[in-house]
Amino acid sequence: MDLHLKIWRQKNYQSEGKLVNYDLKDLNPHMSFLEMLDTLNEKLILQGDEPVEFDHDCREGICGQCGVMINGLAHGPLEHTTTCQLHLRSFKDGDTIVIEPFRALAFPVKKDLKIDRSAFDRIISSGGFVSVNTGQAPDATAIAITHQTAEEAFDSAACIGCGACVATCKNASAALFTSAKISHMVLLPQGKEERSERVINMVKQMDAEHFGHCSNTEACEIECPQGISVLNIARMNFEYGRALFLRKNIF
């Protein structure tokens, strides 16, 4: 199949970027989207041109590094699919595909399609921890947890931190990401000791990173490759209000 690509090229965060046209012919429709970009880069290198920078790592939909905007959609046209799991068979022969980086003030472009997601790391490090005693791992049945609680915590923990929620939100909000990280900790007994301090610190850091506010459009859940529920945002808001109430009454 033949494809016409319009790819965002940008030297760094300070420089202006633009869409550049590329044509690829005789592509195998069973190629992954990233393999198509690899093919383009091989062509550019052979021509003596600079290859397109893009993030990738595991290419198994686990690491969350590969996200780009494809024809205006985070990760492309398929639901619950990361960019690396997207294949060319999802497009038609002769299609024009516009490829851009995830856009948000908190995600500065490092080069071309490659962005800086370190804001997410700082949110996690601000409060994503638990107090545990050193020594042998406790028996799996030592702390009783209901099946429903375990499933809800696992669903929240499934967030891979790709940033699609931020990129698709009209406010560039990180509420879904932050709430998922808060939720899976607060649902489990091991995370309840620091629950108040954690939610206050993580929300504070989220705001400090210049993410926008959530306006409940739920676009984040729709575009999330893991299908993380917006109910996590409601839980985060509850936990934040609870923490402020307790702090006010304690101090």
What are the segments in which pLDDT stays under 50 over at least 5 consecutive residues? none
- Rounded to an integer in angstroms, the radius of gyration calculated over CA atoms is 21 Å
Contiguous helical run count: 8
Please state how the strands of the largest beta sheet are arranged side by side: 2-1-5-3-4
Broad structural category: alpha+beta
**Roughly how much helix do the residues carry, as a percent range?**
25-40%
Q: What series of H and E elements makes up the topology?
A: EEHEEEEEHHHHHHH
Overall body shape? elongated
Work out the strand percent: 5-15%
Distance between the termini: 67 Å
Count of individual beta strands = 7
Largest sheet: 5 strands, mixed
What is the average per-residue confidence, as pLDDT, rounded to a whole number? Answer: 93
